Amino acid sequence: MNFEIDAFGTLVIAVIFLYVGRFLVNRINFFKNYNLPEPVIGGLVAAITAFVLYKFFNISATFNAQIQSILMLMFFTSVGLGADFSKLKEGGKALFVFLFCVTAFVLVQNAVGMSLATVLGLDPLVGLIVGSITLTGGHGTAGAWGEVLEVQHGIQGAIVLGMASATFGLIIGGVVGGPVAKFLIKRHRLSDQVIEDKNDTQLDTNTRSATFEYPKKTRLITANNAVSTLGMFALCIFIANLMTDFSQGKWFELPTFVWALGTGVILRNILEHVFKVNIFDRAIDVFGNASLSLYLSMALLSLQLWLLADLAGPLITILLVQALVLIGFTAFVTFKIMGKNYDAAVLAAGHCGFGMGATPTAIANIQAVTNTYGPSHKAFLIIPLCGAFFIDIINAIVIQMTIAFFG
Description:
The chain is mainly α. 77% of the residues lie in helices and 2% in strands. It has one domain (67-201, 209-406). Mean pLDDT is 87; it is low at 201-207.
């Protein structure tokens, strides 16, 4: 028996499980000590509940996809609207160094997936599916490339396999980021460094923070601020939908969320630097953080864990190895290259999020870590920009070249 849940019902259930996650993280020391994000825990409880209902009572639910899509677009729009050119400049060299780490890992991820697929007697392109297509790319990339691999390269079941792999990745990406950061912080005694930094530099209430930084900080906004900001969100999403339709089938075709993010960047900087309009970052932060929490809870709420049962033994083996490679790479490569300091540990947690999950998972990871140990302004500058924009471009280029070579 399947129940159709409308937009309001979907939102209510997502909020309930978001608060369930918050309750569990506050009450269970293991979740709190290992910095597991509240939306991830709540969403996992929802996904497990759905799995039990489906397996033992044959009850399933279809949640409204439109509201989840809107929240996703609002999240990426907030990333764009928060990215003024001064912040890009502030990211500086560290942004490009982190991009190098991300690019290297995409190549490693595909090498591991395709090598293991070949050893296990599978088509190498199957290894690409359980590589950067799904683990770095997520569900959207899995659906898009799965269709290409099925139609043009004869990989049967590529879409189902991709969705199941992306589901696995989203769960693992949200679970391992916090423990990796905790391991690095304790091993290198970085918490002492954070305390010293806090004592040396107190947070100025007038200091501009990066988008998604200090998610639990009270932010004063007015109705006028909220209306103006919602208008900017709506304009960005409207243009993104137009560009998605216009670019369909053309060489510059991009997913809607990329158009939304790019439009946000352009709109923000034109208004601020050309027309000298005062942009209300506090309102952008509030709407961005709310969209992030609700979207992530809703995404996990909609996961069908029984899809993982469709993965054969060899594919599960590849995914488990990919998880171990991610942990090792972020703990010993990303952390080292980014400076072996507290910021580097937080960036490693974020890399876990979109290295085997999605950008919202990455941001939830770094929020969970900084809520426990202290702020990391550099991480909140770099992770949203890299995870939401650059990584998709890099991944698309790598996938295209790999398929062209092996296809």
